[in-house]
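Illustration 12: MurR/RpiR family transcriptional regulator.
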Amino acid sequence: MTTDLAPQTIDAFIERLGERAEFLPKRLKQCADYVAANPDRVAVSTVAELAAGADVQPSAFMRFCQEMGFSGFSQMQKLFRTDFSQKWPDYGTRLAKLREHGTESPSALLAEFVEVGRASLENLMTSVDPAALQKAVETLSKARTIHLVGFRRAFPVTSYLAYAFEKMQVPSVLHTGIGGIRFDHTIQKGDAVIAVTFAPYSEQTLEIAEAAQRQGADLVAITDLVTSPLVRMGATSLLVVELDVGDFRALSASFALAIALAVSVGARREKS
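Figure caption equivalent — predicted structure in token form:
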């Protein structure tokens, strides 16, 4: 059991989680990833439900709570209930009601995606650190060239950023990976990289991000968890968690963040 004092705020909890996650044993790391991705569920779920979500035994989840400085699950849940009563609305209840009516019809499925999209967008206001967003805009505004790196589910986000930057005449390079062709060698000191990846994280994105740092470029990340490898690299990280309908996730919040970032950078560069 850890002798650390328990975090007094969610922000302090998230900071500690980010510092310790990569050093946790496998099962406790699963707990960390699950809590980072689903903070709203901690306040309203039992330890058994959270353990099932993390695919661990309840005893492992209890050890995770202690590792984070709490006497047990009840103390950790009390913190989340106090803090998230204002920050994180319980959208699980709303979605449960939608599912009671079935999802066989297209209109019912549309209603679910609209609901999770709204929830993701509202959560974005608390998941993105304003100071990190400001730093990201300043970094990108000064960059000689902005490199956009994101594959699989993240590729639509980087593609949109490339489109937006082109319209605002902001020099950028979209790394597509088409034909196995990579442009790592074009990243230079004075450039900046926007790396976008969500769990399970793209190895190609991480490799390019590491190469960019070695070459002296600045790194801005759009990712989902404080336990993301990009966060551990020291990137200026903008966190966005998309809720899902089954195993399908829309990109409502990711696109909102991307357009806000692009427009802010374009406006800043125009003034300079």
